[in-house]
């Protein structure tokens, strides 16, 4: 029999018969490893312990201590175990697909009766019974005819359709968890008992069209979360509980910031409190951009399709655009326009007005650009994912030899802003060419090399995010981590050689000839709507004082304090503090509870003693104790705290 060489992570190699499985390799090393092993990595591919290895390869064996592989297998096996449990309880249910997703898995079922929340506990109980049986997991490769016949006999039309959609040269792998069988690429664990019975929880039920097609049957989707142990699950459930408390939609109501309604899906109705936050943040960004050498512009909302065709958006991005047809006076046909989904083609139009010299570069152009993009209604989420939004958008027109410096300048610019807003640390992802793109491979090679080199020159080694670049160029994505560990992709920085070419942007070089500028697309916050949602959830509604929409409420204890309360409010407003008086004939404890619920940072209580002493009693949000301060002292303190960080 032919021999193969398997090389282990420590560099040592062993000789084995071709066709040996990773399980046998583990057993050859030690009996304890054979029991603990869950999978292998063979030549960089995650490998089932039962799969044969036919050629020389590198190999690494995994146990439950290897989090990445263990999590994938636990979640994948639990999807199968859940489907098995559902069919053991309700044999008439048809199964479809059950992939691993972030934090867990889901599985889609076709069942005549709807699942109800009470069913989840029943399914969980059955799953734990299956785990405790420690049933062996087995796998085989079948030919198509056998697999199709098998599923037709069992009344599983969805599996038949899946098989028929798989390319003919791909092997069909079958897995059994005990007697229950599914079509699956694998890998999987050795037996159901390798999963801890207390490491998972079924979370919710939702509807989902078969294969995402609204013309196909509506299925029922059950979501589950799982980790390698109960501690991981407990931490995750705590995070979800904390996230629910911080939900910007809930806090938006409590703080009277905004609302959404069905007549304007995916668009925000900003209330006075919310608009105060919005404009304070925008004013801060405007000052920062001016200090950073940007010129601010404003461009049209509705633009003829001709520009979008020239830019490439009509071909590559039309599905996300709102089309506007206008019956122009005396026109023989309607003019076709689009609401702008992004600002870049319009900024090139401004650049193209008049001759530009190499001495004018870099030209940093910024716009608080109002954009509209179509998002499916099911994807909309409060102000975090909307159809109408405003970007702190910017485009830097520069020479190729300026890419590195401008990238470093932008990273410093972004870092300072994130720090001001309470985010000390962020990670960076490098997204390279997507499948659907404009421009030649040579242009993409140049753009990717330039951006990656510039990022490394700025002292950052980014995480590679394959295939996620914009259609016109590679990009950096700046990812914030919030107070409860969630990641938010906010800022972006993109190198674009394509759009200047398509829209004929030029400058006069030192040689007197025309040259194409490079276009750097950049956003710091991204969408104002989304970033405000992130800030609300990061701070659990307790926004930094300078951003808080209602900074101070002066609440009277007795009606005789009304005049002094008005005087305090006047003094605070004169100092630049947003202050209001609560003179209602209500008990002070009621007023404190109400304004604390609305996340007002400072409540100043005033009674007879405060009038006599020219003081106020200070209650700070989240603190039980109070303090008495002289009026002049509190005004001076709050004046400093209310000053935006860039003006201190």
UniProtKB/TrEMBL annotation:
Pfam families in the record = HGTP_anticodon (PF03129), TGS (PF02824), tRNA-synt_2b (PF00587), tRNA_SAD (PF07973)
Query: Residues of the signal sequence?
Result: none
**Which EC number(s) does UniProt give?**
6.1.1.3
Q: Name one GO cellular component term.
A: cytoplasm
Q: Which residues form the Aminoacyl-transfer RNA synthetases class-II family profile domain?
A: 247-544
Q: Name one GO molecular function term.
A: tRNA binding
Principal location listed in the UniProt entry? cytoplasm
Does the UniProt entry include the keyword Membrane?
Answer: no
SUPFAM superfamilies per the record?
Class II aaRS ABD-related, Class II aaRS and biotin synthetases, TGS-like, ThrRS/AlaRS common domain
* NCBIfam families listed in its UniProt record: thrS
Q: What is this protein called?
A: Threonine--tRNA ligase
Supply the source organism for this entry: Cognatiyoonia koreensis
């Amino acid at each position: 029999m032919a021999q193969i060489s398997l090389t282990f992570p420590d560099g040592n190699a062993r000789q084995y018969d071709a066709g040996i499985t990773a399980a046998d390799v583990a057993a050859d090393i030690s009996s304890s490893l054979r029991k603990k092993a869950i999978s292998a990595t063979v030549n960089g591919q995650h490998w089932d312990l039962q799969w044969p290895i036919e050629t020389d390869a590198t190999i690494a064996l995994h146990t439950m201590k290897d989090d990445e592989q263990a999590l994938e297998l636990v979640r994948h096996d639990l999807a199968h175990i859940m489907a098995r449990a559902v069919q053991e309880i309700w044999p008439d249910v048809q199964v479809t697909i059950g992939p691993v997703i972030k934090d867990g898995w889901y599985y889609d079922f076709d069942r005549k009766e709807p699942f109800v929340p009470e069913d989840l506990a029943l399914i969980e109980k059955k799953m734990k019974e299956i785990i405790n049986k420690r049933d062996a997991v087995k796998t085989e490769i079948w030919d198509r005819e056998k697999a199709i016949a098998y599923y037709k006999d069992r009344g599983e039309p969805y599996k038949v359709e899946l098989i028929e959609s798989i390319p003919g040269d791909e092997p069909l792998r079958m897995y059994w968890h005990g007697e229950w069988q599914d079509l699956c690429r694998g890998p999987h664990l050795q037996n159901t008992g390798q999963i801890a019975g207390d490491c998972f929880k079924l979370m919710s039920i939702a509807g989902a069209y078969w294969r995402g097609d609204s013309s196909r049957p509506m299925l029922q989707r059950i979501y589950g979360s799982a980790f390698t142990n109960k501690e991981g699950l407990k931490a995750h459930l705590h995070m979800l509980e904390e996230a629910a408390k911080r939900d910007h939609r809930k806090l938006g109501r409590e703080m009277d910031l905004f609302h959404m309604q069905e007549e304007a899906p995916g668009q925000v109705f900003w209330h006075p409190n919310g608009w105060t936050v919005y404009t304070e943040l925008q004013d801060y960004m405007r000052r920062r951009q001016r200090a950073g050498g940007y010129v601010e512009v404003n461009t049209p909302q509705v633009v003829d399709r001709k520009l979008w065709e020239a830019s490439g958006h009509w071909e590559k991005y039309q599905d996300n655009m709102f089309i506007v047809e206008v019956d122009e006076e005396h026109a023989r046909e309607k003019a076709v326009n689009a609401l702008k989904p992004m600002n870049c083609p319009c900024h090139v139009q401004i650049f193209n007005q008049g001759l530009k010299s190499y001495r004018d570069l870099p030209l940093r152009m910024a716009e608080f650009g109002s954009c509209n993009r179509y998002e499916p209604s099911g994807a909309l989420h409060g102000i975090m994912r909307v159809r109408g939004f405003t970007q702190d958008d910017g485009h830097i027109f520069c020479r190729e030899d300026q890419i590195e410096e401008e990238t470093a300048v932008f990273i410093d610019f972004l870092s300072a802003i994130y720090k001001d807003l309470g985010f000390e640390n962020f990670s960076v992802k490098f997204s390279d060419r997507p499948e659907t793109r404009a421009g030649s491979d040579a242009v993409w090679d140049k753009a990717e090399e330039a951006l990656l080199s510039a990022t490394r020159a700025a002292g950052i080694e980014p995480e590679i995010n394959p295939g996620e670049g914009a259609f016109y160029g590679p990009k950096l994505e700046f990812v914030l981590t919030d107070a409860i560990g969630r990641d938010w992709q906010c800022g972006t920085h993109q190198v674009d050689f394509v759009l200047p070419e398509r829209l004929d942007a030029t400058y006069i070089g030192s040689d007197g000839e025309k040259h194409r500028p490079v276009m750097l697309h950049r956003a710091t916050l991204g969408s104002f709507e989304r970033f405000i949602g992130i800030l609300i959830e990061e701070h659990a509604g307790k926004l930094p004082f300078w951003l808080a929409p209602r900074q101070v409420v002066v609440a009277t204890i007795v009606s005789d304090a009304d005049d002094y309360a008005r005087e305090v409010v006047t003094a605070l407003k004169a100092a630049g503090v947003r202050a209001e008086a609560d003179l209602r004939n209500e008990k002070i404890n009621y007023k404190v509870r109400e304004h604390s619920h609305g996340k007002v940072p400072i409540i100043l209580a005033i009674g007879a003693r405060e009038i006599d002493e020219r003081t106020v009693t200070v209650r700070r949000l989240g603190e039980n104790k109070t303090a008495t301060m002289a009026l002049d002292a509190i005004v001076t303190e709050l004046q400093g705290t209310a000053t935006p960080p860039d003006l201190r």
